[in-house]
């Protein structure tokens, strides 16, 4: 009679590892054209800007004079300029505050759309879509009319309420009120995207889980912080990252507000500073150097989220 050990010896060792399947090449070949177009569309301008930041590239080079390589001289000039760091600090502060306010208001609007009935929700959604679809220049024309220091609606309303000190008051002359108005405008334009994205995430939260938590005695605040927020955390993270990137590169709103009556040197952010260096002063090399710095700063601010995504992929 053969023992189990002898049977195992006769059969020999068993292979538990399955042979690896060869990955088909067709998906990679199909995506190669898209990758090539993306590299050309994004890579070439980036390389051109980096090369230009290493040169002396001004108005003369625009008329055909060959540029002169100065290597890192532009970056040294840039990083030793106190005004540059003032603009950087101002841009980061404006970016973080505006992104935080946008996330708070957008989350509240998403929760409101989730709580109201269908008719009210559709009305809110249509209103936000109209605000979101309005072109930036057209919206800024309306905002400039509202805050105009001569014929603005805001000053007229305040004066009619008895606040005579706001007669012909220029809200854009003071940097603090300038950035407060700019924050309101940027938040007003960004809230619809945040609200719709978070509302889409809220629709994925199971109603049975919330009902069970309510039966166990959880308050609305506890259900929000311990159930809803952890479930939609990936959505909140990517929206916050996008808002930080967009608010760091904000340009149109700030530039049009500057043209309406502010001192540009006291209200410049990184976007308008690059415009002032390139288009205003024809110093395209310094403008390119600031652009490369903004790219590095954007990656640094978003690295926390990128690192968390990489960890999730590894796990």
Automatic annotation (TrEMBL):
Keywords: Cell membrane, Membrane, Transmembrane, Transmembrane helix, Transport. It is a multi-pass membrane protein. The chain crosses the membrane at residues 25-47, 87-112, 124-146, 178-202, 223-246, 284-306. InterPro entries: MetI-like, MetI-like_sf, UgpAE/MalFG_permease. Its main location: membrane. The keyword Metal-binding does not apply. It is found in: Cell membrane. Residues 88-305 form the ABC transmembrane type-1 domain. Belongs to the binding-protein-dependent transport system permease family. This is Sugar ABC transporter permease. It comes from Leifsonia kafniensis.
């Amino acid at each position: 009679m053969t023992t189990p050990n002898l049977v195992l010896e006769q059969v020999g060792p068993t292979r538990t590892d399955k042979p690896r399947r060869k990955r088909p090449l067709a998906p990679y070949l199909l995506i190669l054209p898209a990758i090539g177009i993306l590299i050309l569309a994004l890579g070439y301008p980036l390389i051109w800007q980096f090369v230009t930041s290493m040169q002396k590239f001004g108005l003369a080079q625009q008329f055909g004079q060959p540029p002169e390589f100065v290597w890192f001289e532009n970056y040294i000039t840039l990083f030793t300029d106190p005004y540059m760091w003032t603009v950087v600090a101002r841009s980061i502060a404006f970016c973080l505050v505006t992104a935080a306010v946008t996330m708070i208001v957008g989350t509240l609007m998403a929760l409101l759309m989730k709580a109201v009935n269908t008719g009210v929700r559709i009305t809110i959604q249509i209103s936000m879509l109209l605000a979101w679809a309005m072109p930036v220049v057209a919206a800024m024309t309306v905002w400039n009319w509202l805050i105009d220091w001569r014929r603005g609606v805001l000053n007229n309303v305040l004066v009619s309420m008895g606040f005579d000190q706001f007669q012909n008051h220029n809200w854009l002359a003071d940097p603090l009120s300038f950035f407060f108005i700019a924050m309101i405008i940027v938040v007003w334009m960004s809230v619809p995207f945040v609200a719709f994205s978070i509302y889409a995430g809220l629709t994925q939260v199971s109603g049975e889980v919330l009902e069970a938590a309510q039966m166990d005695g959880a308050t609305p605040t506890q259900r929000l912080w311990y159930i809803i927020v952890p479930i939609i955390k990936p959505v909140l993270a990517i929206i916050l990252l996008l808002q930080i990137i967009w608010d760091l590169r904000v340009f149109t709103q700030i530039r049009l507000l500057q043209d309406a009556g502010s001192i540009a040197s006291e209200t410049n952010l990184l976007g308008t500073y690059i415009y002032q260096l390139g288009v205003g002063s024809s110093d395209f090399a310094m403008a390119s150097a600031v652009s490369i710095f903004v790219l590095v700063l954007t990656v640094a601010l978003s690295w926390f989220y990128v690192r968390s995504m990489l960890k999730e992929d590894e796990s």
